[in-house]
Amino acid sequence: MGAPDVIEIDELSFRFNGGPPVLENVSLRVQAGDFASVIGPNGGGKTTLVKLMLGLYAPTTGRVRVLGLPPEKARPRIGYMPQHAMMDPRFPARALDVVLMGRLGRGIRIATYGAGDRRAAAAALDRVGLAADRGRPFSDLSGGQRQRVLLARALVTEPELLLLDEPAANLDQKVEQDFFDLLKELNRHLTIVLVSHDLGFVAGFVRTVICVHRRVDVHPTSSLDGRMISEVYGGEVRMVRHDHRLDE
User: Fold this and answer.
1) Are 175 and 164 in contact (CB under 8 A)?
2) Do 221 and 234 fall within a single domain?
3) Is 106 in a helix, a strand, or coil?
4) Is the pTM of this model over 0.90?
5) How many alpha carbons lie under 13 Å from residue 177 in its C-beta half-sphere?
6) Same domain (yes/no): 61, 165
7) CA atoms of 164 and 46, how far apart (whole Å)
C-alpha cells in the first residue's frame, strides 16, 4: 500500500470574478513524503494553485483536501514561504524575531511569546543552520541567510507539509544549491511542494513535477523530456538535467 495522499484535488476549476479560467479541470494527488515542483509559464496558474492548497482562494468548481481536511482547516499544519515576504529588510528585527512571527498563526499576540515559542524558534534556526545567527539583525544577513530565516519561520510550527513559492529567486547558483540541499534534508521528514521557474535546476532534487498551464499534468522527474516541456511552456526550452542527484 502506497503512502497516503497529503494533497487531493478533484476536477477543480478556478477563475477570478467571472473572468476566463485560470485553472481548468485539475485533478492531482501529492503523496506523503514527496518532493514536488510546480512548473509552468508565467501566468499559467502556479501561484494560484498553491493558494488554493492553502485555502486562500476557494475553487470555482471542484474540491481540494489537504491532510484530509478543507485547506483552511489544515493551514495550522502547513508551513508556507511566499514568493515575496512582507518584510522590509531594514526592519529592526533580529533573525529570532522574524522566526517567532511564524508562531502568530497559533493565536499568539506579538507581546506574549512564551519560553516554548522561543525554544521552537531557536530550534527552527538550528534546523536551517543559523543557530549562531539568531541575535543578528535581519538587515545584516546575506540574501541566502534571509531566505533560510524565512524558511525557519515556515518551520517553526513543525508542519507536516511545506509549500514554497519561488524560494530560491534571486539567489546565486552556489547559494541556491546549498538551499536545495537543505530542502532535500528536510524532505526526509516533510512533504514539500515548491513553485519554481528553473526546471533545469530543480530536476536534480525533486521526485515529481506538476506542470501547470491552465490544466495540470503530473510526471515523475525521470519521465520529463523536451517535448513535454515544450508543450507546457509553449516553445523551445533548454533544460539541463542533474539526474546524478536523483534518488535511486
Assistant:
1) no
2) yes
3) helix
4) no
5) 5
6) yes
7) 11
